[in-house]
Specification:
There is one protein chain. With about 120 residues, the protein is an alpha/beta fold. It has one domain: Rossmann fold (3-Layer(aba) Sandwich). About 45% of the residues lie in helices and about 15% in strands. The chain is built from five helices and five strands, in the order E-H-E-H-E-H-E-H-H-E. Strands 2-1-3-4-5 form a five-stranded parallel sheet, sandwiched between helices. Helix 1 crosses helix 4.
Length: about 120
């Protein structure tokens, strides 16, 4: 986690168009395809994001809420989980842009945010 703005790691269920929109606005966004992580478990996706200092963007509310609880109860840190309701990619990207401009990377740490 470097800098003021959070870097995002898009779970494989998130449209890659969102990463393109974020990058066009100078935000850091990595997809599972970019990271060669396609097909890995949610836990492995989370661990990869943590190793890279990135917040996770996912549509998978159930599994990532469970992971957040496990991390919290064991005292482990993560760099944020953003759970997005399935919408058109441009709408999700617009919501993310607002969020990324309002919250610093530090604000996302150990936090679950819903958009």
């Amino acid at each position: 986690m470097n800098g003021l703005f959070a870097s995002l790691y898009l779970d494989e269920d998130v449209d890659v168009l969102i990463a393109s929109v974020l990058r066009s606005r100078a935000f850091s966004a990595t997809t599972t395809l970019d990271a060669a992580q396609v097909g890995n478990s949610d836990l492995n996706q989370m661990e990869y994001a943590i190793e890279q200092g990135m917040a996770v963007l996912t549509h998978n509310r159930k599994h990532f809420e469970e992971l957040a609880r496990e991390y919290y109860s064991s005292g482990r840190i993560h760099f944020g989980i953003i759970i997005a309701v399935r919408r058109q990619p441009n709408e999700i990207a617009n919501r993310l842009l607002v969020l990324l401009n309002e919250l610093s990377a530090e604000d996302f740490k150990n936090r679950v945010v819903y958009i």
